[in-house]
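Hi Y.,

Following your request, here is the sequence exactly as I used it, all 231 residues.
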Amino acid sequence: MNDQIARSLLRPTRSAGRMAVGTLLLAALGYLLRAVWEIRLAAAGEPPSGPPDQGDGVHRPLTALENSYHFVTTVAGVLTAICAICFLAWLRRVRENAADLSGRPPKYAGVWVYLGWIVPVVNLWFPRGIIADAYRTTAPGRRLPASVTIWWTLWLLSLLTGIGLLHPASTDDTIARAYTSIWPLLTSDALIIGAAVTGALAVRAVTSAQLARLAGDEAATPRERTGALRD
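Below is the corresponding structure, written out as tokens. Let me know if you'd prefer a different format.
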């Protein structure tokens, strides 16, 4: 029975971790492409006809480069949405696994796996807290990986730019900003890319800790394993 519990935890943890890492890196690639296109827009300069949004609901025809930027941002948005789904699935899995391994309820209720990202104020620390709690429960006495703190710091900084994932401007507005003031855009892109890459490292670290704990439980005697799952 305990072997079945360990195997049922092991497979979802590994697959969920791989999906989260892969989609985080794809999201980073999407924002890297955005940054490249923003540099191209800045280098090309604003057309004589002015920005795409002319005001009062009037939009001029887009140039070929501006059209391609719309496509790139759409691709980046799709990759980011897939990343969010996979990351939340992984977060829910490691939270549940940590509770199963320790026999203690998680510090944060399950609803905060989702609402913790959007509820004001608590979204400043709840998501990181859920991961930290899962790691410390899984590997008591071990120091929280630095990647978790770096990831969360970069994520919060990306939100403060006002151009991050939760506060996107319209694509035409972003194009206009690329023509006139590109550095805030590139800073925001760099922060999001950094958060995605370090987030992938954090996922690997937490997932590896759970897999190591599960492997240790499987290597234990039946009596030791039973105690580990209940304590």
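The CA atoms of residues 25 and 143 lie 25 Å apart.

Thanks again,
Q.
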